[in-house]
Amino acid sequence: MKYCSKCGKELIDEAVVCPACGAPTDGQNKPAANDGKSFGFALLGFCIPIVGLILYLVWKDSTPLKAKSAGKGALVSVIVSVVIYIIYAILIAIGLAGMTTGMMMY
């Protein structure tokens, strides 16, 4: 989101001039030249989700594509972990139910 440097009105990202005062935009908030999707940062975010979250928060304005890669990696890691824990809990519950059923037969 950008704002006019003259009048402070909110501008759309593609705006060349401010619709309120007609002042040219200064080109702030454009992505950095070295910004791009990064598998490495996505993998880092997946392996260490807190690092991916921190990188996302730090880079979201300056290098949004790298930030998105790191954030996606962290999010996928958390989702995979939750699914694994749920499956593990279900298997434990099934195992305990089978053990109590087996004990009742004897």
What secondary-structure arrangement, pairings included, does this model have?
Elements: E1 2-3, E2 10-11, H1 39-47, H2 49-59, H3 64-105
Antiparallel strand pairs: 1-2
Helix pairs in contact: 1-2, 1-3, 2-3
What does this protein structure show overall?
With 106 residues, the chain is mainly alpha-helical. It has a domain at 37-105. The protein contains 3 helices and 2 strands; from the N terminus they run E-E-H-H-H. A two-stranded antiparallel ribbon has the order 1-2. The longest helix is centred in the last third of the chain and has 42 residues, at 64-105. The model has no long low-confidence stretch (mean pLDDT 84).
